[in-house]
Amino acid sequence: MERSVAAFSFAVCSLAIAFAAGSGPTRAFASDSSAAAPRAEDIYLRAMRAMRAQPQPNYVIFRADYWARNAAVRCTADDGLDISLHHGDSFSAFRVWYRVADGRSVTVDPKTRARCDDGLIEPAGAQVEALGQGTPAPTATASSTGRSSGPPLIGTVRVEAVHFYRVTLAGIETIDGHPAYHLELHAYRNPFDHPLTDLWVDTSSLLIRRLQAEVSVHLLIASARGSFVASFERSGPYWLLDNEHIEFAANATLVHVRSTINVRASEFAFPTDLPGVFPSPKPSASSR
Q1: pTM score, two decimals?
Q2: What are residue 96's DSSP bridge partners?
Q3: Domain boundaries in the chain?
Q4: Order of strands, edge to edge, in the sheet holding 139-140?
Q5: H-helix or E-strand containing 31?
Q6: Which end of the chain is more exposed for a tag (fewer CB within 10 A), N or C?
C-alpha cells in the first residue's frame, strides 16, 4: 500500500504540472480594446506559453519539509524516498539536490545522513516538459458541419492545445494576495490520464499560481481517490513549484484509509554545476 501511495503521488505530480502550448508573447488577449472578459481558452493557452517562456536553472538545492497525517515520509538507501501508512501526524525535513535537465533528485536526511536518489517535489524544468506530452500544439483542421463533443472550433482551427479539456472561466479570485483567473477544466475523455481540474492564472503575468488535479479508481470491492494541489512562487529569476498538498483516500471491505501530505520547498540555491553529487550514467553497450 505504501508504494501505491508513493506511485500515485509521483504520477499525479508529473501529470498535473505538464504545460505546453508553443511559445510567444503573452501580454494581450486580443487586438481590440473590448472590455469583455477574455475567453477561457485564450487564458489557458497564454498561461501555457508564459510558463514555458520562463527561464530554467541548471540545478536547484533546497530544503523540503513534509507534514503528514496518517502517513510517514522517510529516506532509506534501499527503497528511496519511502511513503508509508502511519497513524497520527509526522514531520520530516530533507536537503535536496535537483537536476533540472532530467528531473533527477538526490535527497538526504540531515539527521540520519541517509541518502535516496529520488524526491517527491520537483520545483522546475522536468515537470513543465512532462505536461507537454498531454498538450499537443495547435493544428488547423477543416471545419465540420456536424456537432461534436470534442474541443471547440474557432473558425476552421481546432484548438488542439486544449484538446483534452473543456475549459471554462469560473471567475477571478485572490491567490496569495494576487488576483487570478480561476479556470475549471473538464477532461473530454480518460480523466485518469488527464486529471487537471482547476488552474489559477495570474491576471497580470499569466503565470500559473496554483493548480489542482484529481484521480479516482473504482473497483468491484474497493475504491480510491487522490487529489493534488500545487502552488508556484518566484525565487530570484525563476518561477518555481514550492508547495504541494496531496490527499489520498481508499475504501475496501471493512477498511478505510485517509492520508494527507503537505510539502514545502524553501531555502533555494541555484548552482551552475554540482560535480560529484549525481552518479555518472552507466555507459551504453554501443559505447563500450
Answers
A1: 0.74
A2: 62, 107
A3: 2-23+38-136+151-271
A4: 139-140, 157-158, 153-154
A5: none
A6: C
